[in-house]
TrEMBL record:
Organism whose genome encodes this protein: Oceanibaculum indicum P24
Composition bias, Acidic residues: 186-196
Lineage: Bacteria, Pseudomonadati, Pseudomonadota, Alphaproteobacteria, Rhodospirillales
Oligomeric form and interacting partners: Associates with the 50S ribosomal subunit.
Biological processes per GO annotation: ribosome biogenesis
HAMAP family in alphabetical order: GTPase_Der
MF terms in GO: GTP binding
UniProt-recorded name of the protein: GTPase Der
Residue span(s) of domain EngA-type G: 4-168, 205-380
Binding site residues for GTP 2: 211-218, 258-262, 323-326
InterPro entries: G_ENGA (IPR031166), GTP-bd (IPR006073), GTPase_Der (IPR016484), KH_dom-like (IPR032859), KH_dom-like_a/b (IPR015946), P-loop_NTPase (IPR027417), Small_GTP-bd (IPR005225)
Protein family: Belongs to the TRAFAC class TrmE-Era-EngA-EngB-Septin-like GTPase superfamily. EngA (Der) GTPase family.
Amino acid sequence: MTRFTIAIVGRPNVGKSTLFNRLAGKQLAIVEDTPGVTRDWREAAGQLGPLRFRLIDTAGYEDSYDDSLPARMRQQTERAIEEADLTLMVVDARAGLTPLDETFARLLRKGSRPVVLVANKCEGRAGEPGLLEAYALGLGDPIPFSAQHGIGLSDLYDAIVEHMPEEEPEDEEQPQTEPGLTVTGEDGEEVLDGDLLPDDAPRIIQMAIVGRPNAGKSTLVNRLLGVERMLTGPEAGITRDAIATDWEYEGRPVRLVDTAGMRRKARIDEKLEQLSVQDTLRSIRYAHVVVLMLDAELGMDKQDLTIARMVEEEGRALVIAFNKWDAVADKETALADLRDRLETSLSQVKGVPVVTLSALKGRNLDRLMAAVFQVYDTWNRRISTAQLNRWLAGLLEMHPPPLVAGRRLKLRYMTQIKTRPPTFAIWASRPEELPGSYQRYLVNGLRQDFDMPGVPVRVYLRKGRNPYAGKKK
């Protein structure tokens, strides 16, 4: 049974995202004292006392009906209202009612869904006049509330429970969390949501889509989902929050994360854009596979390489999507230039998959998902200790470590200590003296001989224990 859904709506800058974060119990939505911060609607699991529900945060409602961005945001909000079982309309009690509040209230009164009116910012006496004005909206008694301070939660609880089914069945599924949040495993180590599943359950692949503004990230998400879930348009920088959506492709569960476009740090001067970039970085940090979207008409520039290096440093698997491929005249030259740039500037993830596609027309999306699953499986690969030591012996015989101070360095033993990304430990006689060039030789050999393209490979050197150390002569 579908979980009871609550949509939070209202005009811009009344505190919807603050209320969303309060009910979600986490700082998920970007909150800033600027109208129109939220644009796409965001989902999360909400909780108020024993109540459990699905929560939707929406963009500020604008009375616009053309092809502009505010009009498209309004359409998204109306879709969320249609999907919700209950609507929380939030008004700003300190600012009082506005014509836009009255317009929105008329729309909600015509609908069939129940509505609860929340008069936010009622801490202190400054909100009393606005609270009294809110009765004129015809949506019942307003709840005096403060999303920032948590005042009025008991009244909100009573209003919600009145509209919820009497017996809400327990949800046996794994709780859905936003990207960047962790849970604690049995050994006390923090792990990604989706990693604590039964052995026979398919793991949820966290797939973050990143890139510069206007590269087509939201268009790609909409094409994969088959619905207009994300706001798109010719305007650069529409997406501000990292929006996670659960999806399934050929029986494999995927959590798609659409992120804000990342410009060069020197060009970012607004606090809101800084918060958006931080949200994107958090999405990279907790993704499994990161799809870097490039505009094929613009090629790969320094900022794209910076993002790719961030992905590698975080140890995530990487796929490069060359979007707007249908608009490229000389395809052979464009692809050759991209591969040459990757070879020279991103050697630490040699063999990264490159997929040419058109997100707008839906071309080659199956090839993209095939590359995502392949690189995800590689990222999770485990190699037996016996295989590794046979490989190490052959490598040392073919190309032994260099002499240091007239003495040969000895690499004695090797094992894989973790996956995601593949990480190996080698015990050596004097690990601190092994040249960096030889360490890179080991990494490249591992990637080539065990077929691990496109994922970071980590090799750590450890000093073997001397059995005679500390013993008396």
